[in-house]
Automatic annotation (TrEMBL):
Transmembrane segments: none annotated. This is Phosphoglycerate mutase. It comes from Mycobacteroides abscessus subsp. bolletii CRM-0020. Keywords: Hydrolase. SMART domains: PGAM (SM00855). The keyword Hydrolase applies. GO terms for molecular function: hydrolase activity.
């Protein structure tokens, strides 16, 4: 009965400049902290998978340095295309406001939430290079394959991917996915066990390893 540890990547540079941004200095520290935490849990030498994005790969590299493992890339663990989804959301909003300036005053999170909801709707799937359904299918296929591997597995991935796996356990609705992926903290650990009755959630979004002396939360970030 193996445990799968889903680790969100450390904080990345501004997504708006590039959807494949590297880790920031804070993100690198977060990645090193989560690697140390996994080593403390006795996971030395375990399998470490990661998606193809820089922030995922760099997080996996920090983890493998701590665990003495070799990272293995599987692009199915990649995040959705943030830039495309937000771009489409902005274009829709521009159609309903008078100026770009008024859009700039809008809530960035609301624009993302709107974009994700639109992306997940069946009537807009043709607007994107990868539909929500295709994203869901590849993520769940990657998870299914991970459950067939012997022993424990660590996966360095992203919030949307982790949220999709959690939402599937909760019934698979879009609203559950939006709720789960919204709160995943950088370099947090979500643990699942694959037993005789299938996959069970052990811990979601564990980030105690990011809290410093005296309760310092400088390393607790969402973006």
């Amino acid at each position: 009965m193996g445990v799968i540890y889903l680790v969100r990547h450390g904080q990345a540079a501004n997504y708006s400049s590039s959807p494949d941004s590297p880790l920031t200095s804070i993100g690198q520290q977060q990645a090193e902290n989560v690697g140390a935490e996994l080593a403390r849990r006795g996971l030395g030498g375990v399998r470490v998978l990661h998606g193809g994005m820089k922030r995922q790969r760099q997080t996996a590299e920090a983890i493998t340095m701590a665990l003495g493992s070799e990272p293995q890339q599987d692009d199915r663990w990649d995040e959705y295309d943030y830039k495309e989804i937000v771009g489409n959301s902005r274009m829709r909003r521009l159609a309903s406001v008078n100026t770009v300036k008024s859009l700039a005053k809008g809530n960035t999170q609301a624009i993302l939430e709107d974009g994700l909801a639109q992306w997940a709707s069946t009537d807009s799937s043709g607007e994107y290079a990868e539909s929500y359904t295709r994203f869901q299918q590849r993520v769940l296929a990657a998870m299914a394959d991970a459950t067939q591997l012997d022993g424990d597995t660590v996966v360095a991935t992203s919030a949307g991917v982790i949220g999709m796996i959690i939402a599937d356990l909760w019934g698979g609705s879009v609203s559950n996915w939006l709720t789960a992926q919204r709160v995943v903290i950088n370099s947090s650990i979500t643990s699942l066990v694959n037993g005789k009755r299938g996959i069970s959630l052990l811990a979601f979004n564990d980030h105690t390893h990011l809290i410093g002396d005296g309760g310092n939360r400088d390393l607790v970030t969402y973006r």
